[in-house]
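Annotated sample (chain length 105).
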Amino acid sequence: SSGINAEYGGSEKREAYVLMEKLRPPHIPNRVVRNRPNSSPELTEIFDTTGELGLHCVFVADSEGKVVMNEVAGPLMRTKPASCNEGGVAIGIGVMDSVVFDKEK
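Output written by the structure step:
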């Protein structure tokens, strides 16, 4: 396992590197569609998930370091099992997801 938990465990040394409180997102019952290589898409059973909302950003600079573009390109939503403390999409546990913003609320 990789990440801050694997490297520092619960020790005082870990506390020296962690500068924020642990986030405790709500658990949402959900199901996901997994599309594994060489197989048909599969709909999972319902399980508790958590979502991670981020942003796709674009940053471009020229050869002299002058910023040509620095913009937000859109939302990025990842969903993973609520029981998963680390990893996610990069290690095959989470999935890319969709997000819909409701202007009415």
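Annotation: The two ends are 40 Å apart (CA to CA).
Annotation: The CA atoms of residues 80 and 94 lie 4 Å apart.
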